[in-house]
Amino acid sequence: MAGLLLGILLARTVASLVAAAWAGVPFTWLGGPDGHASVMLARMLPRRVPELGGFLPRLMLSTVRLVREEPALRRRAACHGAAIRRVQLLWYLESVPS
User: Fold this and answer.
1) How far is the C-alpha of 64 from the C-alpha of 54, rounded, in Å?
2) What is the per-residue burial (b if ≥16 Cβ within 10 Å, else e) of 48-87?
3) 73, 66 contact by CB (below 8 A)
4) Which among 63, 93, 60, 97 is positioned nearest to 77, based on CA atoms?
5) Using one digit for the tens of pLDDT, what is the confidence trace for 4-58?
6) Residues 6+ apart with CB under 8 A from 31
7) CA-CA distances (angstroms) from residue 85 to 78, 82, 88?
8) Quick check: 67 and 77 in contact, CB under 8 A?
9) What CA–CA distances, in Å, run from 78 to 32, 37, 51, 89?
10) Are 73 and 67 in contact (CB under 8 A)?
11) Are 67 and 74 in contact (CB under 8 A)?
12) Torsion of CA 93, 94, 95, 98, to 10 degrees
């Protein structure tokens, strides 16, 4: 058991030393391919300019229309809302002193 503990402590120490020596090197190596990929995607993907035909109130009303017309959406929303309330109740009961 002492050997296991010593190995864990030494591994953490060596990992910290390696991390300090190599602080930013992996990120600079990954910056090149990442930049190359972004340039290639900017050249290859088609240009798309969204039409600004709608206003925010109309968009909000479309959400209400979706909830009214889609029963599966209503069921899922009720199920997930109940799950969130159960988690909130659990955390509340955990914080109340006995």
Assistant:
1) 16
2) eeeeeeeeeeeeeeeeeeeeeeeeeeeeeeeeeeeeeeee
3) yes
4) 63
5) 888 888 888 888 888 777 776 666 777 788 889 999 999 999 988 777 667 888 8
6) none
7) 11, 5, 5
8) yes
9) 47, 42, 33, 16
10) yes
11) yes
12) 80
Structure tokens at 82: 């109940």
Q: Please provide the distance, in angstroms rounded to a whole number, between the alpha carbons at the two ends of the chain.
A: 39
Predicted local distance difference test score (pLDDT) of residue 26: 66
Biggest CA-to-CA distance, the chain: 70
- Provide DSSP, 24-57: SHHHHHHHHHHHHHHHHHHHHSPP--------HH
| Overall pTM surpassing 0.85 (yes/no) | no
- What are the pLDDT digits (tens) for 46-93? 988 777 667 888 888 888 999 999 999 999 999 999 999 999 999 888
